[in-house]
């Protein structure tokens, strides 16, 4: 196979919108386990696993709860401006899988589970 | 092609600090005597871990951040402390998915299970009709399983699993299994028959034919993400397009088995001294076995593909299942006995009589005919069509760096928790 299924999948699905300037948090039902390559995330509600494939992304996710916006979390994690688009896509993917969620909608999400 | 993603696959091959999930057979006691039982269950082992010892293991799993365990047996629900242990695990942030034949799933238990986000249930069913199921699992087992499913559905437990071991007699029932699952709002999960435990005795006559393997592969390709497989059919990737999953053997790398007496094996299908890494009762407990046992350390080094490396399918199938090879007498660096290129059949023909390793430990009921008598009882007709939850997730590649893999349906976890994960190639 010459093409990556992940890339192919990505190409066929538009990247979900993600508001970098909104407050975000790790979903309360998500557990994070740091690993050499980054981290494993497990959502106890959806019973899904995700992989963070870099320590930098783990740093961003860890900062979400402490920073007023996702953009501030990226800055606190030491990301350069040029890196933001790639990390925004990564955060959008995590949001789509409910691994992270907007700060103010947690309660309503939990009641759906 | 992303370098970062490729290295992630390598990370899994070289092992993780803790398993992503693991299988824990809580007891060898079972009310049934399924002819293909992977753990040769039946009678309780008197050395079984006590309640307190089980709780210490759960404490360790919590410290290691093992997200959840797949509990099986035997029939785990016949342990008097089973529900106590489930509660203890979930209170300690270790999720539970347990496999059962349904014997203890009363309406009250079903209601209790439906209330917990941290418990998932998997009902075993090996025939979409009573005759096919009961020939393998024993008289009455079909009715028991369907009654349990009805109780779970009535209690509002959405998305419980119906787990099917694929045999020569039920490959043709795949659509019927899916209909049953849909009728209960459940999700179908199908796994591969291994020549493990009592399965060694019946593998020759029950494993799917070559034509059925192809049929199974095409069916899985058509149903994709809605049917879970525990990544157990990765040997079928040799047909061409891989099925969802990592297509690697996770034994001792990302998964393992703890048996009822605390022995830790590389995988649930490898109960044999050759794959025994240690015991949770040893000094250092489970963590030491996982992190530094000689066997697991060895499994995390580069494995030789042997004769298979010259085959064009090797990159896809990785030589297949270690346990399937071992218990059919084939070399671990040779082809899988069900190699889709036919190399397994040739290799099997050369295996000498009496040279095939026997599974360790037989807990089968004594003085009982192991072969259940086939009976003819009509199945309850499916009443309602629905769809299982689609467990797909968006990809997560950046242009220069891949940081998030697809969300993986962890519910598929059994032998491999990576079912549904498509590694970038």
Protein architecture, described:
The complex is a heterodimer of chains A (113) and B (425). With 113 residues, chain A is of the alpha+beta class. In chain A, 40% of the residues lie in helices and 20% in strands. Chain A contains five helices and five strands; from the N terminus they run H-E-E-E-E-H-H-H-E-H. In chain A, the strands form two sheets. In chain A, strands 2-3-4 form a three-stranded antiparallel β-sheet, covered by helices on one side. A two-stranded antiparallel sheet of chain A has the order 1-5. In chain A, strand 3 and strand 4 form a beta hairpin. In chain A, helix 2 (55-64) crosses helix 3. With 425 residues, chain B is an alpha/beta fold. A nine-stranded mixed β-sheet of chain B has the order 6-5-4-3-2-1-7-8-9. In chain B, helix 4 packs across helix 6 (141-154). The termini of chain B are close together. Mean pLDDT of chain B is 86; it is low at 1-5, 375-403 and 405-425. At the A-B interface, helix 1, strand 2, strand 3, strand 4 and helix 4 of A face helix 1 and strand 10 of B. Strand 4 of chain A pairs antiparallel with strand 10 (408-409) of chain B, so a sheet runs across the interface.
Write the layout of secondary structure elements.
The complex is a heterodimer of chains A (113) and B (425).
Chain A (H helix, E strand, L loop, with lengths): L4 H8 L11 E3 L3 E6 L2 E6 L4 E5 L2 H10 L5 H7 L7 H13 L3 E3 L3 H7 L1
Antiparallel strand pairs in A: 1-5, 2-3, 3-4
Helix pairs in contact in A: 2-3
Chain B lengths: L2 H11 L7 E5 L25 H13 L4 E5 L9 H10 L3 E6 L6 H8 L4 E6 L5 H8 L3 H14 L6 E6 L7 H10 L3 E6 L6 H8 L3 H14 L33 E2 L4 E3 L10 E4 L5 H8 L1 H6 L14 H4 L4 H5 L16 H7 L58 E2 L16
Parallel strand pairs in B: 1-2, 1-7, 2-3, 3-4, 4-5, 5-6
Antiparallel strand pairs in B: 7-8, 8-9
Helix pairs in contact in B: 4-6
């Amino acid at each position: 196979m010459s093409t990556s299924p992940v890339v192919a999948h990505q190409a066929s699905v538009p990247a979900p919108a993600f508001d970098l300037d909104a407050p975000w948090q790790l979903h309360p039902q998500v557990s994070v386990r740091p690993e050499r390559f980054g981290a494993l995330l497990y959502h106890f509600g959806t019973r899904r696993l995700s992989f963070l494939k870099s320590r930098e992304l783990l740093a961003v996710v860890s900062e979400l709860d402490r920073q007023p916006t996702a953009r501030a979390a990226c800055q606190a994690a030491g990301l350069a401006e040029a890196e933001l688009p790639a990390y925004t896509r990564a955060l959008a993917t995590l949001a789509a899988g409910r691994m992270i969620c907007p700060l103010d909608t947690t309660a309503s999400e939990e009641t759906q589970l | 092609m992303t370098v970062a993603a490729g290295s992630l696959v390598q990370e899994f091959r070289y092992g993780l600090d803790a398993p992503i999930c693991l299988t824990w057979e809580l007891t060898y006691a079972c009310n049934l005597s399924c002819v293909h039982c992977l753990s040769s269950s039946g009678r309780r082992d008197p050395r079984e871990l006590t309640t307190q010892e089980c709780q210490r293991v759960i404490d360790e799993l919590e410290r290691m951040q093992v997200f959840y365990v797949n509990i099986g047996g035997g029939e785990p629900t016949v342990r008097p402390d089973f529900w106590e242990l489930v509660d203890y695990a979930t209170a300690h942030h270790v999720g539970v998915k347990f496999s059962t034949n349904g014997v203890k799933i009363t309406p009250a238990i079903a209601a209790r299970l439906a209330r917990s986000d941290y418990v998932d249930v998997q009902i075993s069913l090996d025939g979409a009709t009573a005759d096919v199921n009961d020939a393998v699992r024993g008289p009455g087992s079909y009715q028991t399983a369907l009654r349990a499913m009805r109780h779970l559905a009535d209690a509002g437990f959405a998305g419980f699993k119906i787990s099917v071991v694929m045999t020569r007699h039920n490959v043709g029932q795949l659509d019927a299994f899916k209909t049953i699952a849909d009728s209960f709002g459940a999700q179908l999960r199908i796994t591969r028959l291994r020549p493990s435990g009592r399965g060694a005795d019946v593998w020759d006559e029950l494993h799917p034919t070559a034509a059925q393997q192809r049929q199974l592969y095409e069916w899985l390709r058509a149903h994709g993400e809605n049917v879970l497989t525990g990544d157990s059919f990765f040997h079928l990737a040799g047909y061409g397009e891989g099925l969802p999953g990592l297509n690697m053997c996770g034994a001792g790398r990302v998964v393992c088995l703890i048996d009822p007496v605390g022995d830790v094996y590389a995988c649930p299908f490898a109960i044999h001294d050759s794959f025994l890494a240690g015991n949770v009762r040893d000094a250092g407990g489970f963590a030491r076995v996982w992190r530094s046992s000689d066997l697991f350390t060895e499994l995390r080094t580069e494995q030789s593909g042997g004769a298979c490396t010259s085959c064009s399918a090797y990159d896809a199938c990785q030589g297949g299942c270690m346990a399937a090879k071992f218990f059919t007498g084939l070399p671990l660096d040779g082809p899988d006995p069900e190699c889709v290129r036919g190399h397994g059949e040739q290799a099997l023909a050369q295996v000498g009589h009496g040279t095939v390793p026997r599974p360790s430990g037989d807990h089968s009921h004594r003085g009982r005919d192991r072969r259940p008598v086939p009976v003819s009882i009509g199945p309850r007709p499916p009443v309602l069509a629905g769809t299982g939850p689609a467990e797909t997730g968006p990809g997560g590649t950046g242009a220069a760096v891949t940081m998030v893999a697809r969300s993986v349906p962890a519910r598929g976890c059994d032998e491999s928790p990576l079912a549904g994960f498509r590694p970038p190639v």
